[in-house]
Amino acid sequence: AQLVDTLPVEFDPLTLNTTVVVTGGASTYSWGGTNNRTLTVDFTKTTPNGLGIPSGDGYSVQVSLLVPANLSPDWPSNGVPVTNTATVTATTAAAASASVAATITVPYTVATTAGAAWSPPTTQFKVGEASTLTLTTTNTSNAKADTLTLLAPTDPTSGSNLFELVNFASFGAVTFPAGADRIQVDAYVAGSWINGAFDTVAALPAGVTDSQVTGLRITFGSSNAGAQLTANGSAGAVVLNLAQRASTRTAGTSLVTGAVATANVRGTVSVPGHGTQSANASATYTIGGLDSVVSGSVVFSTPRIPAGGSTISTITGSNASNGNLSELTVTQPAGSFLTDKITFGGFTAGGAAWPAGATAATVTWLVTGQPGDIDPDPVELTSGDAFPPTPTLSPTQRITGFSIQFRGTILVGASAVVPFRVNVAEDAVAAFPGTEVFVQTAQIDGVNDAGAATPVSPYANLTVLYPQVDVGLIKSVTPSAAVPAGGRSVVQLHATTSSDSGYVSPTSISITDAMTAAAFDYWRAFDAVAIAPTQIPAGATLLIEGTTDGTNWTTISSTTAGASAIIHQEALVGGTALVGLRFTFLNAGGFGQGTTVQANIAFVARATLRGTSDPTATVGGDVSYVNSAHADALGEVVLENGSTVSSTATSASSAVVKTIPSGPGAGLMFSKAWVPVSGSTTVSSQSGLQRTARLSWGSEIGGYSSAVVADPADPTVPVATTVFQAFDLVSIQPINSSNDPYIAYDKVTNVELYVGGAWVSIFAEACPTGSACLGKFPGYTLSAQESTDATGVRLTFAENSAARGSDPLAPPIGSGIASGPDPRTIDLTFQIR
User: Fold this and answer.
1) Pairing of the two strands 398-410 and 451-452
2) Could you tell me the CA-to-CA distances from 218 to 31, 52, 222, 275, 582 in Å, in that order?
3) Mean pLDDT over residues 329-340, rounded?
4) What is the per-residue pLDDT for 598?
């Protein structure tokens, strides 16, 4: 026997379990047919007599189907009885069929979701500021819908209507929900709904303007008949472009202090025959309060200047609001500062700046003149342009002020910086009282949607002095100790301009050092031999002049420095005839406040007073000679009487001359002494103690090309007569400026030990590098064998020309070893044998 059951096609949406349960005996089954939905069961039971199914016996076949959870109630067989017919055939019996009906009911679930998103959610008050409100809706029903509707706001008559604070501007992007291809927009205008028509694009009803809208009803549908919006399909969305209002729509209250708009939105779905369902959403839009505030300052680059001088005034105007400005204006009001005494010298580029966000500016000139004069036109600028040059005016016109209006979106904290030169007339201040304060007051204005800012009037004081220059002079003579005839003396003349910016910057500074009628004038006892290293400031010229009679001056040299300062020095040919030198530093642009120039002159002491045979000093009778000098500063500000301004300063210092015995070694100094230990120069025998012998040496006059310092004086004498009889030389101590003030200008050229009757050089060991003994001596420790064998030591010194380039106190190059009144020392460490 065989059973065949073809499942009805109405049940095709149901899920078939292909496992079949057959009870009652042996059988086989299979699925086939359309959609594999026809079941065939073969009964294969065998009985003892060979027959199949015994009379009165039979089988049970069970087939299961599962109703999907998402089966739409729109299924055509929903709630309809569906008949299933099965047929059984047998080889020994007639075929038989049976039918039964099954009814499956899927209930309708109607649901929707709605969404609202405002971007940006927060902004500053600004009329017309754009924002977007995105509305979304979804058919979350289990059945197709015919429409999805969005209502914004849910109650257009409410005082909290979002359109109280914003205007509808336009529709943005539209996204159709699945199954929809049409959209209808209804607008709430003046208390009534005006219906639109379905279309492929979102548009207001005919005759409705954007600003009239106080509510919107947006419906998605289909151009096809019946419900077409997909169940649980993709969402639909529409973007509303909005613009911030200046005031509330109904009451007209300004929004400048801020407000919050809430968009209450309702989405509704309609399923034919099964009603509607709604969902709510909301989004807020916060308008921050806006103020209109400006700040400013006025600063002078030099707030204290002489009449006839100039300074830079910088006016700064800033946006101190909590939001952007559309205009920021910097004004120098007419007549408040710029007069015939204080005049406009033009805008300067240095430090000038546009406020961030400004895109354009207008410069307006404020001018005074005579009837018939034509005022200059305003100048239009675009972002980043330099401020304009001073306009060409008629002889009767004068600029009394200006105004610069910057426009654009000027950011919070942005500043406009307007520097300009201020020129002060030479006669702006009378000689008495000699000073006057001029007050510069500017004005800063600003505008934004909060209105015009309260103007601020920053100010600054400019102190103007009656034009004058000031210079100081300090003179020093080195050394302070007495020098013999031929000994060096250096005169340093420091002239300094005033550090007070109220003084005119001098264009020339002249320093004169010349012989006076005084009996003990310095020049009577000294000859100028060289211009010691003297610095010339960058951009300046040094004119050096000399006189042999105190009246007539002759140019010796003229040197100009470039972009950097330079050092000038030179030997004076015929210096013995000079009785005066004049150093004139010139700078057409003026020397800055607090500038110091220094003239340096190298002298040597004379043996006799100038013009006589009288000695400058006698043995044991030192004589002091006074050197007087004066400095003159000249400024090029021309006064009403046609003269220039000047200043003079004087200074004096003394040098002492002594006479030393003549003969071989004149001017040389030498002495030797043990350095006491605890006040004693006694050492115990057999103690092995060390003691220091100090050699003090030097030359009071120049001209010696080298110097040799030796201990003992004659190493060939019997050793028993020398220190080496009882002591071994252990080391030669380092030499530096602390124990030899002149070593910086010299070098050690040889170091020798007297061993076995001959001098042996240890220079390579004592001065291992090329620079080790230039301007210093590192010291040397003898080896044990050298200490045992040495019975003499000597050092040779020579001029170090490379170290004498820029130091005004350095001995002249070529003058030999450094000389002076102070002794130089060499410390030798000995150990008792």
Assistant:
1) unpaired
2) 52, 73, 14, 19, 99
3) 94
4) 94
